[in-house]
Design goal:
350 residues, 2 domains, Rossmann fold, binds guanosine-5'-triphosphate, single chain, binds magnesium ion, nine-stranded mixed sheet
Length: 350
């Protein structure tokens, strides 16, 4: 009986959330339309306000709310294992990953009955469907090319907007999408590709390396791009298997425990402030030590293999709680942030 009441309550709550979602979507759309009119009138008279970005972001967010899309963005410095983490999650080696700079496109992973890749262009060209082999071959940059482009401050595929991979992964049902991004680096122009998409996402999976705890660059990205955006951030401390490899004696368990404790301390000192939600410290629900490569290897051999010891079960548990319990609150928080950002930009422009 108790179960039945709980299920009914749950369904009622979901219906309420769906209703509020549409209301918030309509409000955002109205604000965007009003600003669009203001831009149009301004253009004819005193000049534009320069709010096109805000208008686009609010329209995208309104569309997401209507369609029930919830987007998680995988972000991090170069070579932290972002693509390997996603491949491990899928259980197949689909996203390009390498020791060399590699991911060159924003790649959105969404639910589809058939496995499929589509490239979307920004120059009016029709979208291109291709197989996974051609996707890896044609849209991965080699290291010399990457260095050259970085020097020239050019993008690898300037005519591509993003790629979409459709995949029959249960996690992606119910409108969850995960975005793989090119690694951040110190070229602002290149980062713009990943960071420009943040406002289309609700939560961040920030991937770091256990053996390079919180580099200066990473602290800067968090400070400049993540703080104060109303985003929920999960921190994935990847490559935890490498701590052992880096010891003088990999079989010395005491040395391993000591090294791990030291690393944990550094992460806690730097990440704790990003894990305070409504005044509460929820660090254990936001920071996870994972080993993506061993997890991927196990899943490629056997898709039902246990991932015990790789940190994946713990992270997946927290992500599931987040997606079922906190998702709606996060969606509304993000809509509020976008509206108030547009408000302050408008005031500045006036
Ligand atoms: N030992 C170990 N190696 C890993 C792990 N995760 C990733 N790697 C390796 O690290 C290298 C980089 O991995 P990627 O997944 O391409 O990293 P990325 O962050 O997507 O790189 P960019 O897209 O170029 O920024 C690859 O050689 C992976 O095999 C891990 O958990 N353990
Ligand atoms: Mg990558």
């Amino acid at each position: 009986m108790i179960d039945k009441i709980e299920v009914e309550n749950f369904i009622q709550d979901l219906a309420k959330v769906a209703k509020v979602r549409v209301e918030v979507a309509e409000s955002l759309e109205k604000i965007a339309q009003t600003l669009e009119t203001a831009e149009f009138v301004g253009k004819e008279t005193s000049g534009e306000f320069g709010l096109n970005r805000e208008i686009e972001d609010m329209k995208a967010s309104s569309k997401n709310l209507r369609e029930g899309v919830f987007r998680l963005m995988v972000l991090g410095d170069m070579k932290r294992g972002k693509s390997t983490f996603l491949n491990a999650l899928i259980g197949e080696n689909i996203l390009p990953s390498d020791v060399n700079p590699c991911t060159a496109l924003l790649t959105v992973l969404r639910y589809g009955v058939e496995k499929k890749v589509t490239i979307y262009f920004n120059d009016g060209k029709n979208p291109e469907d291709l197989d996974f082999q051609s996707f890896k071959r044609n849209y991965t940059i080699d290291p010399t090319e990457a260095k050259k482009l970085e020097k020239e401050k050019k993008q690898a595929f300037p005519d591509v907007d993003y790629a979409v991979i459709e995949y029959p992964l249960p996690l992606l049902e119910k409108g969850v999408e995960i975005v793989d991004t090119p690694g951040l680096n110190d070229t602002e122009d290149r980062n713009e590709l990943s960071l420009g998409y943040i406002n289309n996402c609700h939560a961040i999976l920030f991937v770091m390396r256990a053996t390079q705890p919180c580099t200066l660059g990473e602290r800067r990205y968090l400070e400049n791009y993540i703080k104060g955006r109303g985003l929920s951030v999960f921190f994935l401390i990847n490559g935890s298997d490498q701590i052992r490899e880096s010891l003088i004696d990999p079989d010395d368990l005491e040395e391993l425990a000591e090294a791990s404790a030291k690393i944990r301390k550094v992460f806690y000192a730097n990440l704790a402030e990003y894990c305070i939600v409504d005044g509460q410290d929820i660090y254990p629900e936001r920071v996870f030590e994972i080993s993506s490569l061993p997890a991927l290897r196990r899943r490629i051999k056997d898709s039902f293999a246990s991932l015990e010891g790789t940190g994946f079960p713990e992270f997946m548990g927290a992500l599931n709680t987040f997606l079922t319990k906190e998702r709606a609150a996060q969606e509304f928080r993000q809509a509020q942030t976008l509206a108030s950002q547009a408000n302050s930009r408008m005031k500045e422009a006036i």
